[in-house]
Amino acid sequence: MPDSVQEARDVCGIDPALLGTDYLGVLLNPPWNANVTAEHVAALHLERVCPLGFIFVWVEKEVLSDVVDVLVKASFVYVENLTWVHMDSRNRVRKTVCVHMLSLSNR
User: Fold this and answer.
1) What is the Cα–Cα distance from 90 to 72, expressed in whole angstroms?
2) What is the pLDDT of residues 47-61, one digit of tens each?
3) Parent domain of 38
4) Is the pTM of this model over 0.85?
5) Residue 2 counted as domain residue
6) Does residue 18 sit in helix, strand or coil?
7) Most buried residue, 30, 78, 84, 107, by CB count within 10 Å?
8) Is 4 within the bounds of a domain?
9) How far is CA 16 from CA 11, 45, 49, 52, 73, in A?
10) Is residue 87 in some structural domain?
């Protein structure tokens, strides 16, 4: 069994061969607003890193379909999505305007 945690700060420049080949789960939280794309996720070859496990990806709504396509091509199956509600330090729903809603509010 590999180490329980293997953290990489730069998904665009990591060599997937350094990660190992028998993880049961991988969590990706790439900085989508820093020009990370679904192609960067594809370049990680997650099917080699986690051949029989789960891939969890925090993904922006605009690239969800592209990321799912990449993972399906790597023989993963899309199961479910979750919605994250951003809370502030006082445990209240954060009231900042979401970039995804800006186009709706301008209509």
Assistant:
1) 39
2) 998 999 999 998 888
3) 16-105
4) no
5) no
6) helix
7) 30
8) no
9) 9, 7, 7, 16, 17
10) yes
